[in-house]
Design goal:
Blueprint lengths: L7 E4 L5 E2 L4 H12 L17 E2 H12 L5 E4 L1 H8 L3 H5 L16 H7 L7 H13 L5
Parallel strand pairs: 1-4
Antiparallel strand pairs: 2-3
Helix pairs in contact: 2-6
């Protein structure tokens, strides 16, 4: 949607902070967990760049696109309505607690156990993701 110049939608409240994970960071952290017996039998929150609001994240996407853009929130009532016809959107209802209030992961246990972990800044992750999509879209 963003690359096509359409309205970019954020699922949930635009002004709630949210921890967003970048797949290459997740992969590196999982390699750390898989290679260290201290990780066995425990739950872990994986390192991620600092939490941002939906509005801040969408502003970063628009800045990376280098052109004006429109943003909008997809609220719970709209999610429920669309969910009547779209099973993927319907499933979002099960995770709405991540969207209507702060959803910020505490990764201090990971850092304390395994040491510093450098995460990818949002701007870098967004640029790489948009580049990935650009190589896969047809004009």
């Amino acid at each position: 949607m963003a690359l096509a110049g359409k309205t970019i939608r954020w699922v949930g409240a635009l002004d709630q902070p949210h921890t967003l994970s970048y797949l290459p960071d997740i992969a590196r952290a999982l390699v750390t967990l898989g290679g260290d017996t201290r990780a066995d039998g425990q739950a872990w929150h994986l390192p991620a760049a600092p939490a941002v609001t939906g509005r801040e994240f969408l502003d970063l996407v628009i800045a990376e696109l280098g052109r004006p853009g429109r943003t909008a929130a997809l609220g719970r009532p709209t999610q429920r309505l669309i969910g009547l016809f779209n099973p993927t959107v319907r499933a979002l209802g099960e995770t709405w607690y991540q969207r209507d209030r702060p959803f910020v992961s505490d990764t201090s246990k990971f850092s304390t156990t395994f040491g510093p972990f450098t995460t990818t800044p949002h701007t870098t992750a967004i640029a790489a993701t948009l580049d990935w999509y650009r190589t896969r879209t047809t004009s």
